[in-house]
User: Fold this.
Amino acid sequence: MSPRTSRPARAGQYLALLCYLVFLAFPFLWLISTAFKPARELGSLHPTWIPDSPTLENFRQAFDEQPLLRAAGNSLTVALSASLIAVVIATPMAYVMARQRSRLATAATGWVVVSQAFPFVLVIIPLFLVLKNLHLINSLLGLIMVYVVWSLPFALWMLVGYVRAVPAELEEAAAVDGAGRFRTLVSVTAPLLAPGIVATAMFAFITAWNEFFFALVLLKSPEKQTLPVILTHFLGAEGVADLGPLAAAAFLATIPSLVIFAIIQRRITGGMLAGAVKT
Assistant:
């Protein structure tokens, strides 16, 4: 491709990427703007991007009207527990599936991919009945179990790719040097998988943190509800939203996801560079 041809093409790619970023950023920027607007500006017929009189009143009302801290604690407990358990279970399974090339492993991988296509509505009734028989309805433990099962296929699929990226020759070299299977996994494979494990755990955390449907159906007591469910309480009986406090609470709820995504990006980049140097 000649330089004259590549420059317009590259400019078009950058323009398309810029448009896509604007498309993604617009809802979040508008959410921030709404969170800091006073009530009179929220009802204005000519809305503006930047509030004329920024205020923290919406944040104060949000904390006064709903137990956001308690809900955030519930979400943190559920999401952290589910992500850790899912990674602990998925890591050895992914190693076996990646290293044992067999029809069973191929079939298991295919089932993992297919299971992600199942809609929530398809499983909610049998899931509710199972948890009812186990006396885990309206329980954070029951919700943790649901999130573990739901995030496990995706975590397994991600970790299989990370394990396959680790050269098997490194393990064979460690075995030649006299290291046993367990020592090889701990000293050779695990450090190379660390960035992938961290990224997978954080993706599972974000999924559980933002999940709404299962939490809405399975948690009935207000003191056990998670943050996404609490946000619906800012809607009135006729569907009229208390827009200012709702925007403020939603903005606070998105901050952990943004921070974790930033950490994921750094971890993945660091893992790629480390792998390139070791290889």
